[in-house]
Amino acid sequence: MSAALEARGVALSFGETPALRGADLIVETGEIVAVMGPSGSGKSTLLHCLAGILVPDAGEIHALGRRIDNLNEAERSELRRDRFGFVFQFGQLVPELTAEENVALPLLLGGVRREPALRRAREWFGRLGIDGLERRRSGELSGGQAQRVALARGLVGEPAVLFADEPTGALDSFTGEQVMDLLVDSARRQGATVVLVTHEARVAAYADREIMVRDGRVTSPAVAS
Amino acid sequence: MIRLGLRLAVTGGRAAIARLALVGGAVALGVALLLAVFAGINAVQSQNLRYAWLNSAVTEAATGTEAADAAGWALREDYFAGRRMARVDVAVTGPDSPVPPGMTRLPAPGEYYVSPALASLLASTPADQLGDRFPGRQVGVIGDAGLASPDSLIAVVGRTPQEVAGIIGATKITRIVSVSPQDCSGCYVGVGSDGITLILSVVAAALLFPLLMFIGTATRLAAARREQRFAAMRLVGATPRQITLIATVESTLAAAAGTLLGFALFPLLRLGLDRITFTGERFFLGDLSLTWFNVLLVGAGVPLGAAVAARAALRRVRITPLGVARRVTPRPPRAWRLLPVAAGLCELAWFIDRRPRTTNGQTEAYLGGIFLTMIGLVVAGPYLTMAGSRVLARLARRPATLIAGRRLADDPRAGFRAVSGLMLALFVTSVATGVITSIVAYRGETPVGTATYDNLSIGWYPDHGGKLPAADTPIPAGLTTTPGVRDVLVVRYQGIVGNLPTGAIGCADLTRHPDLGQCPPGAQVGAVYADLSRPDFGSDVYEASPMTLAQLPSLPVNSFVVLTDGSRAALEHSRTLLESTFPDGRFPSTENEWRSDFARTLVQFQRLADVVIVASLVIAGCSLAVSLAGGINERKRPFALLRLTGVRLAELRRVITLESAVPLLAVSAVAIAAGFTAAALFLRSQLDYDLKPPGLSYYVLVGLGLAVSLGLIASTMPLLRRVTGPQQARND
Amino acid sequence: MSVPLTLLGLLERQPSHGYDLKRDYDLWFGHGRALPFGQVYSTLARLARDGKVVMDEVTPGEGPERKRYVITDRGATEVDTWLTEPVAPEPHQQTVLFAKVVLALMLDRPAEEYLDTQRRAHLARMRELTEAKRTGGLVEGLLADHGLFHLEADLRWIDTTSARLDALRAQVKP
Ligand SMILES: Nc1ncnc2c1ncn2[C@@H]1O[C@H](COP(=O)(O)OP(=O)(O)OP(=O)(O)O)[C@@H](O)[C@H]1O
Ligand SMILES: [Mg+2]
């Protein structure tokens, strides 16, 4: 097994606020890793760095066998589009688009033509148990439904890595578990690596292992034991 | 990708549709205005060209075909009922005479041609008030090609060569001038089209500026949501270029639709435009037209500009995949923002006593200064808003004041943007009103019952080519007995004596008519101007003339001054009588008519200013309403949550009212002050006048503008109630 | 709840009289139920028998109140082992966990690390239960859920406590 993601001494400050102060982490391919830690400890920031959304001030990030912290904006965008998937807490669906268009969005942005993109998107609705909602707008979905649509969108491009930041944060525990079941099942089926930020132990329990982030550092054993 | 952009643009929910509609509408208005300005400029030029033939006396500029038989030609200015009339006396000497446009031949002695407007006046006016001025009979009507305007009053009167040769300013011509007055140095008939083009440009700027603000406001409507959407797209891997493309498609779509609509709107505006006679004469509708170049420029330029602007706007916000959720507070505006206003006013002040010599220099200096002040106000606005909000927050006793103050202090630019249009409107209003009221107070037309309106004078000025009538020339028979004529005075020509005026009049005449002014105590003869006008700043007392009362009757006549009751019949009858008695000299006129050129232009400008003010007030009001509604919409969640937690609606109302009314009032006060300061500086520098307090209409206008704005603020309250209902606490 | 180990832990701070031990125990771990003297002394006697404490006679022959107990190396080792080892992740462990944390703080031990170790153990157990739930039937799932929720409650407590360690340390070691 080779590392899907690796962070070495990653540091990042927002103005005066240091969010990460030398975080080290290795995530093996196909592994599901839960990132835990107190609020404000830098979990989301770490995830954003790993996903190429933020560029660290110092340190290196390697993803899928390539160094990504020195890529430019457009290259990182393409990496996200083609190799990564995302599921966040809420507010990630484009409200103007229907559910199926939202799911197809990464494909459309990647240049897939409209019809095939929508066809591929629709397959996911059955798989995630949300068929019938294809034409709804995000405002017309419940939180759990929206989250499944977001999951479908995260998975539709068959990403190598799925990044999830509090994917169940806005859901009740039962719905949250359903979403987590689907997430883990789908990721395992696709062989995707998952980085899962959560503060809920029951969500973290879906992962293969967990790491702790505290004060901008990874404090648990950084390598899978 | 373009398709995705279009799809997003048209399905963006109600707020996005509203945004599109508003931007499109504003662009449409702007495009229509721009087209109107182009059409106006074209019309001014076309109209000017229509004046060309009246300048035919300037023989070196003549370009028409050479005629074999030279014609006698004398152009004079006449008036009817306060309207200017051009009268050309011509004398044909053979079959091949030069022919002006709109006519097939020159009239023979005893014939005359008139313009259609004059023809209808002739038909509806008693002959002793108008028709008797023209010897002979009307044989035709001048065609449109010879008219500057459908309302032009023109008479081309056929006389014998001897008769014409005796007229003041007569020449002989073989060709008609056909170049525009602006390309011909001696051609004084026509409009100063450069100046008018400049004024139109200022008008356009004064209107387009608030429109641009409005477009800016409308674009920011639901901007947070739009940015959030872009952020969501960036997250799943849209590159910055793709986002830019989508945003560009969106705004270009709105601009393109707006441009089309603007072209559709233009014909309507054009119909109204020919009523605004800013050259003093109505335009032929056909002259108010666009060139292909204009059409192309606007039709392609506006959407292109919108695309460029969209790009520039996006470059500034920089949408990251994490979007707007994590936005740093913008830096507070600094005090340097006050500099441009100060610079503008200083510039104007600097030119006091340093007035540039050329008209161009003046326009650049003054318009430049006023423009700088205007832009300076826009720059200073956020700072002023912040200053106001600080005061508000410091005085805050209740939560509403605190929230409003904090929000304004947090983003004063947004708070200011809502009222910026209004501020500009107020500034323009104040400058225009200040300048025009003052000029009119010094130089404007006066109403019936004042000497300048009622008194008709005919004068001879030997140093300007006039031949003084002999000392024994009687007052024309029937003049004193004309109904409405109160008296006829004779001013004698005393020649050039020291610095005194050339006229002399017995002091007894003045004593009978105290409104004309007084002799100094003890004097018998007063030194006066031929038309008995007083200099602008003159006192009521004339200087004494060195002539004695006994010498007066032996002096040649300088002028006859007919004192009337101001009625049209009295004035025009007297004028007609004088013209038939003295057919070779300058025609009689009242002081008002003499000045009418300038005064009428002023009145036109005032009308233009009114249009600008009303239009920009309306646009500014729309801006305010849109940004208020947008502001409420943007914050409906927090407001809804506040309401859920028990904050009363009245408290929220107070927040909204305060956060728009405070910048509104703060900025209005500054705009009005700056406007009048600029006007005062301009008046002092250019004309050496003092600023006069504006008339009632100004206060009404400003009061109305502010009242409407406050009304608009109040009108958003139902919206506030609706969008902060409990259902809004739901997340989407 | 392990009274002998708790008393040993208290003794590791400093040699103490039986009475002091009882008072501290009641204050920190009694939860409203005082430890009977009999239990204190019989426990201490057993600890002495096992060589985990010895009597330090300051003023010999003056009755039990004059005796101070001192922890031996053996006793200290036992305390150390006990603190370092995670508690078996079963529900209703708060009191043990709590005692360990307070003592660790009193003894200037790395309480945070204990908590982390505990968290890992809890999470590992939760993973097993989650796996069981995902692969098993409904009944297994429901049973697993019961365990999961209780473990989660523990974990929450662990998180809260680690967030408040500094405050607690200040109270425990005045
Ligand atoms: N855009 C930003 N600007 C300024 N500070 C930021 C920004 N984003 C994060 N921070 C700060 O960086 C630190 C880490 O933030 P981060 O969002 O990574 O925490 P987290 O572990 O995800 O917390 P939570 O569990 O509450 O989501 C915090 O102190 C936060 O205030
Ligand atoms: Mg976070």
From TrEMBL, chain A:
<dbReference type="InterPro" id="IPR027417">
    <property type="entry name" value="P-loop_NTPase"/>
</dbReference>
<keyword id="KW-0547">Nucleotide-binding</keyword>
<dbReference type="InterPro" id="IPR017871">
    <property type="entry name" value="ABC_transporter-like_CS"/>
</dbReference>
<keyword id="KW-0813">Transport</keyword>
<dbReference type="InterPro" id="IPR015854">
    <property type="entry name" value="ABC_transpr_LolD-like"/>
</dbReference>
<protein>
    <submittedName>
        <fullName>ABC transporter ATP-binding protein</fullName>
    </submittedName>
</protein>
<dbReference type="InterPro" id="IPR003439">
    <property type="entry name" value="ABC_transporter-like_ATP-bd"/>
</dbReference>
<dbReference type="InterPro" id="IPR017911">
    <property type="entry name" value="MacB-like_ATP-bd"/>
</dbReference>
<dbReference type="InterPro" id="IPR003593">
    <property type="entry name" value="AAA+_ATPase"/>
</dbReference>
<feature type="domain" description="ABC transporter">
    <location>
        <begin position="5"/>
        <end position="225"/>
    </location>
</feature>
<keyword id="KW-0067">ATP-binding</keyword>
<dbReference type="GO" id="GO:0005524">
    <property type="term" value="F:ATP binding"/>
</dbReference>
<dbReference type="Pfam" id="PF00005">
    <property type="entry name" value="ABC_tran"/>
</dbReference>
From TrEMBL, chain B:
<feature type="transmembrane region" description="Helical">
    <location>
        <begin position="611"/>
        <end position="633"/>
    </location>
</feature>
<feature type="transmembrane region" description="Helical">
    <location>
        <begin position="20"/>
        <end position="41"/>
    </location>
</feature>
<keyword id="KW-1133">Transmembrane helix</keyword>
<feature type="transmembrane region" description="Helical">
    <location>
        <begin position="662"/>
        <end position="684"/>
    </location>
</feature>
<keyword id="KW-0472">Membrane</keyword>
<feature type="transmembrane region" description="Helical">
    <location>
        <begin position="365"/>
        <end position="393"/>
    </location>
</feature>
<feature type="transmembrane region" description="Helical">
    <location>
        <begin position="414"/>
        <end position="442"/>
    </location>
</feature>
<feature type="transmembrane region" description="Helical">
    <location>
        <begin position="335"/>
        <end position="353"/>
    </location>
</feature>
<feature type="domain" description="ABC3 transporter permease C-terminal">
    <location>
        <begin position="612"/>
        <end position="721"/>
    </location>
</feature>
<protein>
    <submittedName>
        <fullName>FtsX-like permease family protein</fullName>
    </submittedName>
</protein>
<feature type="transmembrane region" description="Helical">
    <location>
        <begin position="243"/>
        <end position="269"/>
    </location>
</feature>
<feature type="transmembrane region" description="Helical">
    <location>
        <begin position="198"/>
        <end position="222"/>
    </location>
</feature>
<dbReference type="Pfam" id="PF02687">
    <property type="entry name" value="FtsX"/>
</dbReference>
<keyword id="KW-1003">Cell membrane</keyword>
<feature type="transmembrane region" description="Helical">
    <location>
        <begin position="289"/>
        <end position="314"/>
    </location>
</feature>
Automatic annotation (TrEMBL), chain C:
<dbReference type="InterPro" id="IPR036390">
    <property type="entry name" value="WH_DNA-bd_sf"/>
</dbReference>
<protein>
    <submittedName>
        <fullName>PadR family transcriptional regulator</fullName>
    </submittedName>
</protein>
<dbReference type="Pfam" id="PF03551">
    <property type="entry name" value="PadR"/>
</dbReference>
<dbReference type="InterPro" id="IPR005149">
    <property type="entry name" value="Tscrpt_reg_PadR_N"/>
</dbReference>
<feature type="domain" description="Transcription regulator PadR N-terminal">
    <location>
        <begin position="7"/>
        <end position="79"/>
    </location>
</feature>
<dbReference type="InterPro" id="IPR036388">
    <property type="entry name" value="WH-like_DNA-bd_sf"/>
</dbReference>
